[in-house]
Amino acid sequence: MLLLLDGHAESESLSHLLQAGTEVNIPADALGQDPAHLAAHGGQAFLLLWQLQTGANLNQQDWLGEAPIHKAAKVGSLECLTLLVASHATIDLRNKKGQTAEDLALAFGFWECAQFLKTVKETQNRKAIKQVRDSLSNKNGLLREATTKQKRASESRRPISKKTMRSNDATFLMSCEST
After folding, report:
1. What are the CA-CA distances from residue 115 to residues 42, 70, 102, 111, 119 (Å)?
2. Keywords on this record (predicted)?
3. Among residues 31, 38, 43, 131, which one has the fewest Cβ atoms lying within 10 Å of its Cβ?
4. Which CATH class is domain 2-122?
5. Inter-axis angle of helices 68-75 and 111-156, to 10 degrees?
6. pLDDT tens digits, the chain, 179 residues: what are they?
7. pTM of whole model > 0.90?
8. What span, in angstroms and rounded, lies between the C-alpha atoms of 178 and 150?
């Protein structure tokens, strides 16, 4: 795993480590970093993709509370960030200092990465708000529909008025007399 720390890892290096029995979600070093952390920190999107495909936990945090998304943001790897976001990494995950990946990208001067993360976060928030509105609107629609059905049902069970009864009685009597 130390081969990945320098950021110059080859795909065969990781392959040898995993063939030797390294589990994808077990920390590979004393700092609690698993292969996905190391791939993201090295800006190795191909290796990170491979890790995700083999079942790596993309939100697993190391001793600093950092997940692969934090590592990718710290090194300015837009490719790794894109991959993590597309794989549904938690964008607002905070490290032990309370920093998100966007905060780290800004702190390390990776403006494009920070802007990307900010845009994704805003888009996710808009979608969430729309889903809540749609859900509330749907519930209100169902409530109105249920009320209307209930009203119709109660109208059909309403007692027949005296006028209606008299006309029905007269019709009944007339039909009896004709037989």
Report:
1. 21, 15, 8, 6, 6
2. ANK repeat, Repeat
3. 131
4. mainly alpha
5. 140
6. 444 444 444 444 445 444 444 566 666 566 778 889 999 999 999 999 999 998 899 999 999 999 999 999 999 999 999 999 999 999 999 999 999 999 999 999 999 999 999 999 999 999 989 888 888 876 666 556 655 666 565 555 555 555 555 555 555 545 555 55
7. no
8. 41
